[in-house]
Amino acid sequence: MAAAAESPPARIQSHPGLSQGNPNETAIPGLFASQPPIIDLLETQSSQLQRETIEECLPFLSGEEHAGKCNQHGVPRLDKQRHVKFLQKQLGKLPPQMTAADPSRPWFFYWSLAALALLGEDVSAYRERLVDTVRPIQNPGGGFGGGFGQDSHLATTYATVLALMLVGGEEAYRVIDRHAMWKWLCSLKQADGGFQMVVGGEEDVRGAYCASVIISVLGIPLETSPDSPAYAAGHRDLFSGLGEWIGRCQTYEGGVAAIPGIEAHGAYAFCALGCLSILDAPHRSIPKYMNVPQLIAWLSSRQYAPEGGFSGRTNKLVDGCYSHWVGGCWPLIQAALSGPSSGEARSADQQVADTGSLFSRNGLIRSAQHKWTLKVARPADSARGADEWEAMPYVEDEQIFDEDDRIGTTHPVYVIPQHKIEAAWEYYASRKRL
């Protein structure tokens, strides 16, 4: 069903700023700068869209769309100030046509503040405005809705909590009613071990991840209340049965579905790995509940060439959001394979797993500027313990972006800067009562 493409053979395009004929100069690898060497002869709507996507991506990957704006490797420079202005605009007054997005307001806060933090901006300046905005959307029964008068939902609660952690400070920490949050989380915990997203609503892997992040960040007690749907089933702990439930969501392909028995999806893979990395250190929890070789095979298949990016599902197109969802899986997978770099005896296989990258970083151009390493793992069977992670610039391969284009780091599990998480842990650990 496949044949060699009729397009010219793989090549590296010329780039502005690169002199021709110098073999020592580096550009984007030919695999990511030319038509794919193999094409599927079965024409479908998906294959047509795939071809159109490749044709749209290639001029950017070859530098043709950024004449005079590329570095010596043919990579466009990152215009940080334009990004900052765009993100600041999203945190301002939005036009009337955005009313339909009212239930998603917490995501605007989180996405914009997280991106600004990565670009080096001081987001604490938004603290007072954010607290005043989210206070009315917190419900007396616990959790945050998308907007005023809306039911509490795990997704919008997750986004609101992380936005508050980003701006930091006691005012932001204190606005969260942790006792009501605990009661509400208990009402979402289900008899099969998972979490509903909203009371009476859907149960899926998003719920497992969002709930585990909220519990971990805020120091929520793990004991379930007697009126919880899970209590009668024997789950006296909010994390009880959660790893087993996630394990049942792994599909025959190796990926992870929203619930057992449906299609694997990149975002759910990250949610599953992130949740498991909160339940225990990833080198213990991920192999315990997941078939890691099958998961790696499926995740590896999500990166395409020449686009370089990731798709979210089998036979789907690449999408920028999966640079996060699928790309975010790799540090956790690497930690599952390698274990901690110090503090425990390491096998020869774990030491070998430290070398190289599990995906093509050059294909992503600049999406993987840092390498996260599990430095020290918490004690075994300690859901409350915090693993110690370390972020370092990649040194194995040549850097193809300018140092001025480097952005900040974000925690591989909690997806905000590590010092923001540590500040929240310190604050809530000092609180004697909820």
Automatic annotation (TrEMBL):
Cross-referenced Gene3D superfamilies: 1.50.10.20
Stated name of the protein: Protein farnesyltransferase subunit beta
Disordered: region residues: 1-29
Protein family according to the UniProt entry: Belongs to the protein prenyltransferase subunit beta family.
EC number: 2.5.1.58
Bias kind Polar residues: ranges: 16-25
Summary of subunit composition and partner proteins: Heterodimer of an alpha and a beta subunit.
GO terms of molecular function: protein farnesyltransferase activity; zinc ion binding
GO biological process: prenylation
SUPFAM superfamilies per UniProt: Terpenoid cyclases/Protein prenyltransferases
Domain of life: Eukaryota
Required co-factors: Zn(2+)
Residue ranges occupied by any Prenyltransferase alpha-alpha toroid domain in the UniProt entry: 78-341
Cofactor, free-text remark: Binds 1 zinc ion per subunit.
Catalytic activity reported: L-cysteinyl-[protein] + (2E,6E)-farnesyl diphosphate = S-(2E,6E)-farnesyl-L-cysteinyl-[protein] + diphosphate
Cellular component, GO annotation: protein farnesyltransferase complex
Keywords, alphabetical: Metal-binding, Prenyltransferase, Repeat, Transferase, Zinc
Function: Catalyzes the transfer of a farnesyl moiety from farnesyl diphosphate to a cysteine at the fourth position from the C-terminus of several proteins. The beta subunit is responsible for peptide-binding.
